[in-house]
Specification:
The structure is a homodimer of 395-residue chains. Chain A is α/β, with parallel strands linked by helices and 395 residues long. Helix content of chain A is 43%, strand content 19%.
Chain lengths: 395, 395
C-alpha cells in the first residue's frame, strides 16, 4: 500500500488499484441493536480511526504479524491525533485464544492505567477480535470496544455480532461474553496482504452467509474471489496478484453485503436464542471434521465441506438441490483434502454439537438459497447417506 | 442448627431460637431490573433451594470452609431432588479471587459437561459470590446464576446488584462483569456460624446502607448486632452466643431492610453510572486505608473509619453532624486499630480512587441520614482536617 494516499483521510482507492474513489467510499451497515452501531466498510479506514473513535485513551490489541503490518502505523496516527495509546500484542494463531493470554491482555490494560472511559481496539483476525473483545467486555466490567478486522473471515463474520470468547483445554469458545462493539471498522485495504489460504477461510463464510441471506452474494464471491483464494502459485495468488487483482470497491461491496446479512440475523437474535442458529449452516459437520481430524483441517475448509453436506442432506429430503453447484465451487477453491474418516468417527462429534434431541440431530438446511430452516429430526441413516454423497463428490 | 426442623421445607425458626415461625417467614425484596429478580431473606432457605432453582443441572461453587458447613448438605438435597450437581470448591479467602482460580472454576464447569441451561449456585461470602458470579457471567457466554450468601456482608451488599469480579496483581476487582442473579437466597441461619470478626464486616456495610437509605436501620443494627460482633470472649461472641443471642426473625428484618436499600439503588443505576456511587459512602478513605496498610486492615473496619471520616468532612461543611454518633458506634464495634499513617501516605490512594477532578476529590457525604450527596470539590485542606478529627476520635 502506498503512503502517498490523499491526506484527507477519506475513502481513497488503494494505490495501484483500478477503481474510482467513489467506488471505495465507505459503506455503512447498521446493526439495529440497543444501542445501535455501524459496520463501516471501506478502503483506507485504518487512516480514519482517530476521527471515528472519540475516546482519548485507547489500547490497540493485535497479533505480532498484524502489528508489524498495520498496528504500528495505526498507533502512530492515534498518537498524532493526541490520544494516549497502550500497545498490546500477542502471538499469532489460535493458541493465543486462551485464558493465559487473556490474563496478559487485561493486565496490560491495567498496567497502562486505562480507565472506564478508555476503548479497546481489536486489530486483526478472528482470534484477536474474540480475545480483545473478551478483554474489553470484562476489563473494569466492560469498556468500549471497536472491532478493526483485517481478515475477510473476521469482516464478514467474527467481528459482527458481539460474540467474544477464549478457548479452554476442554473445548473452543467455552468462556466469553456477548459484548457489542461501538463500531466495526473494516478496512478492505488490509485484505491485499492476506495469504490465499486465509482468504479462502473468509470466502467459505461469505458463501455460507450468502446462502442463508443473499444468494447473489455467492455468485459474486465466486466471480471475484476464487482466483485470489486458490493459492495457485504465489505470483497469481492473493487479491493484488496479477492473475487475480480485485479492486477495493468490489471488496467493499462483497464485505458490506455479507455484513448486512449478518447484521440482520444478529439484530433479530442478539444472544443466540433463535434464528442466529442459521449462521451455523454447514457447521455441524464442520465442527465434527475439525475435531475428528485433530484440528488438522482449517475451519473455513471444514465449513466448505459442511455446506455441501448440508446441501446433500436437504436434497435427500426433497428440499432445494444446490449440491452440484456448491460442490463445483468448493472444488474450484481447492480446500485441503476431505479427511479420510469413517462416518462412525464423526457421529460422536456431531452429537456433541449440542443439537441432539432424542437420538435425532438438529441441522440447518436450505429450503431455497437465502431461506434457511432448522430441522430437528435428521436420522443417523440420513447423515450416513449424505456423508457418502460428500465423499463421492469431493474425493 | 437442628436437623429436626419441620419437613415441609418452610421458613421455620432455627432450633433454640426464641422466635415464632411467622417472624422468620421469608421476606421478598424485588430488584426491579429487566428481568426483575427477588432477594429472598429467610431462615433455613438452604433447605428450599431445590424448589427455587428450576434448572436440572447445577454447579455449587463454594469455599472449602463453607462447603463443609453447608455445601455438602445442599448438594445432597439437590441430588435428592433429582438434579445433577457439579461440585466446585476453592480455598477460602481473597486469594481465590484471581484469574487462576477463575480458570479452575470454569474448567470444572466444562469438565462437568454443564450446558447453557445449567445454573451456577454461589454459596459463600463475597469472594465466592464475585468469583462464581464472574464464572457464571462468562461460561458459555453466560449461564443462570443464583447467589446464596452465607455472610452478613454478602447478604446486605455483595450478593445484590450483579457486580462480579476477580482481582489482578495490579489491583482489586479489575476484571469482571455486570451479571444479575436469577435470585438471591439469603439464609440467615448461616450467620450463626459466622465468627465475630466476619460479622463486624457485615455490620459496617449495614450501617453504611442505613446511612444512605434507611436511618432507622443504623439503630437497629447497633441494637441487635454490636454484642455479637464485638468478639469479646468466645463464649459471648457470635449471634448464637449466650451474651448475644439474636433471633432469626430479627436477622431477617435487618437483612431485608438493607437489601431493600441496595435493591433501590441498583435498580436506579444497574451499571454504576450515577447514584450507585452513593454506595461508596465511606469508601474513599476506606480504600486508601486498606491499600496504605498493605491490606492489613479489613475492608469492613476500613469502611467503619471511612464513615466517620465522611461524617467529619460533612460536618465541617455545615452538613448534618453525625460524627459523634458514628464514632461511638465504631468504638463499640471494636475494629482493628486505625493505622498510624501520616495523612500524606493516604492522599495518593484517595486520588487514585478515580474521583479526582482538577485537584479536588469527589466524596459521598450526607446531607442528612438517608440523604447522600456527591460533592466534587473537596480540597486537600478539608481532607487533612477531617483526618485529624478522625485520629482524635479513634485513637
Amino acid at each position: 500500500m502506498s503512503e502517498r494516499a490523499p491526506a484527507d483521510g477519506g475513502a481513497a482507492a488503494t494505490a495501484g488499484q483500478a477503481t474510482s474513489a467513489a467506488a471505495a467510499d465507505p459503506r455503512l451497515v447498521r446493526v439495529a441493536l440497543s444501542p445501535p452501531y455501524d459496520v463501516v466498510v471501506g478502503a483506507r479506514l485504518l487512516h480514519e480511526v482517530a476521527s471515528r473513535v472519540p475516546q482519548s485513551a485507547v489500547a490497540v490489541v493485535s497479533d505480532e504479524a498484524v502489528w508489524a503490518l498495520y498496528g504500528r502505523g495505526l498507533a502512530e496516527r492515534l498518537r498524532t491525533a493526541g490520544k494516549r495509546v497502550v500497545e498490546v500484542t500477542v502471538a499469532p494463531g489460535e493458541g493465543s485464544k486462551d485464558l493465559a493470554t487473556y490474563g496478559a491482555v487485561v493486565r496490560a490494560l491495567a498496567a497502562g492505567g486505562l480507565g472506564r472511559d478508555a476503548a479497546v481496539l481489536a486489530l486483526g483476525g478472528g482470534v484477536v477480535g474474540d480475545l480483545a473483545g473478551f478483554a474489553a467486555a470484562t476489563y473494569l466490567r466492560g469498556v468500549a470496544l471497536y472491532q478493526l478486522p483485517t481478515t475477510l473471515l473476521a469482516m464478514v463474520d467474527a467481528a459482527i455480532g458481539g460474540k467474544t470468547a477464549v478457548d479452554l483445554p476442554e473445548g473452543k469458545n467455552l468462556v466469553g461474553a456477548f459484548w457489542q462493539p461501538r463500531a466495526v471498522l473494516a478496512d478492505v485495504a488490509t485484505l491485499y496482504t492476506l495469504p490465499p489460504r486465509e482468504l479462502r477461510q473468509g470466502v467459505a463464510e461469505t458463501v455460507k452467509t450468502g446462502l442463508i441471506g443473499d444468494p447473489g452474494l455467492v455468485d459474486e464471491a465466486e466471480r471475484l474471489l476464487v482466483t485470489a483464494a486458490t493459492g495457485e502459485g504465489s505470483e497469481a495468488a492473493g487479491l493484488g496478484g496479477p492473475g487475480g487483482a480485485v479492486p477495493p470497491g468490489a471488496l467493499v461491496d462483497v464485505v458490506a453485503r455479507a455484513a448486512a446479512v449478518k447484521a440482520r440475523v444478529v439484530t433479530e437474535d442478539p444472544h443466540e436464542a433463535g434464528v442466529r442458529a442459521h449462521l451455523n449452516l454447514g457447521h455441524t459437520l464442520a465442527h465434527a471434521l475439525e475435531a475428528a481430524s485433530g484440528l488438522a483441517l482449517s475451519h473455513g475448509d471444514a465449513v466448505l465441506y459442511g455446506l455441501v453436506y448440508a446441501a446433500a442432506l436437504g436434497r435427500a429430503r426433497g428440499l432445494v438441490d444446490v449440491v452440484e453447484r456448491l460442490a463445483r465451487l468448493v472444488h474450484r477453491l481447492r480446500p485441503d483434502p476431505l479427511p479420510d474418516l469413517p462416518f462412525e468417527a464423526l457421529v460422536p462429534y456431531m452429537a456433541r454439537d449440542k443439537k441432539v434431541l432424542a437420538g435425532r440431530l438438529r441441522f440447518v438446511l436450505l429450503e431455497a438459497p437465502g431461506r434457511p430452516v432448522v430441522v430437528a429430526d435428521v436420522t443417523e441413516a440420513e447423515m450416513r447417506t449424505a456423508w457418502r454423497a460428500l465423499e463421492e463428490l469431493m474425493r
